[in-house]
TrEMBL record:
Pfam families per record: Actin
Identification of the protein by name: Actin
Family membership noted in the UniProt record: Belongs to the actin family.
Species of provenance: Euplotes crassus
InterPro entries registered for this protein in UniProt: Actin (IPR004000), ATPase_NBD (IPR043129)
Recorded superkingdom: Eukaryota
Catalytic activity of the protein: ATP + H2O = ADP + phosphate + H(+)
SMART domains: ACTIN (SM00268)
Amino acid sequence: MYAGDDVSSIVVDVGTHTTRLGYAGEDQPQHISSSHVGVIVEEGDRNGELVTDESRIDYERKHFEVEPIVNSDGFITDFDKFQTYLENKLTNNFQLDLTESPLLFTEPNMHNKEHRLKLTEILFEKCNVPCLFLGKNAVLSAFASGKSTCLVLDSGHNSTYAAPVFEGYILNGSTLRYRIGGSYVSNKLHEYLKSKGIPVNPGYAFNKVVDGEDIKVTPKSTEGFTDSYRDYHIHKIIKFFKQECALVSDISITDKKLENIKPYEYELPDGKKFEIGGERCLYPEVFFAGVDIINQELEKAGSDAQMEDDDDHLKGFIGVQHAITESINQTDLDIRKELYSNILATGGNCMTQGFISRLQKELPEIAPQNLRVKVSSSHSGSVTEYCASSFTGGSILGSLGSFQQMWFSKQEYEENGAIMVERKCP
Ligand SMILES: Nc1ncnc2c1ncn2[C@@H]1O[C@H](COP(=O)(O)OP(=O)(O)OP(=O)(O)O)[C@@H](O)[C@H]1O
Ligand SMILES: [Mg+2]
């Protein structure tokens, strides 16, 4: 079976931070939610129940664990939970049955054959989807901006990719991935608050009574609330704080003293007010300077709050501008000119104030002098456009008449097995 005009295809874009779902052919995802599920523990009959709706996960609830639906690399770890997650999302938000819906899945840029085969098997065998397609994030982001050849810089929550796309295909050998994204800045800001003795209290941990000008906050018992539930809520608070205060400086912080950066005043949900100074620029600076340079700056400033590179994930990362040139340098000589003039910055982390303009300033300084460099991003600067470019590309692709012959059908699966996904969805 192939999808036709009468069948609504669904685009499923699961990031490590956010899941975006919607009909192919629509500009924006109809449903956007956190990529987490909740599991009720210790509650009689409902013990073990999986909660997939974000508003229900946010609801104040004891004995409730919250866990991500994909691992930090963007791959599904528990396919049973994922199946429930997907079925609930499609039933509750689209009144759709998986057995009737062609599904176009976005997938992480790094090719993972084992994961693709497993996902294919689950979708056909357990969810009984009629047909599916898997498309790499970078390729779909390129389509969203009307390009089939470009260099995609996708800086999301847990990863930053520099991925060359040529004539609609990702160049795997030249794609670079670093395990760093918006979560890094969030974690650093959280550590900073801890080091200053500023506690981040989730909403369920206090009572707030507003009496005229006065706001009275009293602590509440947190007994029975799990650690994962607490971390999930704290992360949301830090995320709002970060999105408001974090700033990429227009010049390297080695040229600008930390104390010259304008402080920002912020109020936490429990009414606690504080100011953040140079750190609002220091942590996002990692995307342009890498960890080593930032540590040198911290040392000079007499701070002992070093940024630890305790994981392999930052090895070799000296900034997104270098990731782009390094990735392009690994492509064929004759396509480099086109890539340099078609750089697309996408992913939520690129929305940090000052990020795009700093990239536009730094990249031409290190790119070959004879080549024109053009960095473009979302036109309106809206969150949806930045974060949902893969969704939008999938939506465009899934609604093209010429694409309808490209779906991987259940019949083809039954005749050839899951391995055929490697050929049908290159
Ligand atoms: N205005 C903003 N300023 C700074 N950061 C932002 C802003 N808006 C979103 N972000 C950050 O972008 C990240 C989410 O981006 P995105 O939705 O692209 O990630 P994802 O696709 O779920 O993750 P990944 O691609 O790593 O799997 C989060 O860390 C979020 O805090
Ligand atoms: Mg992403």
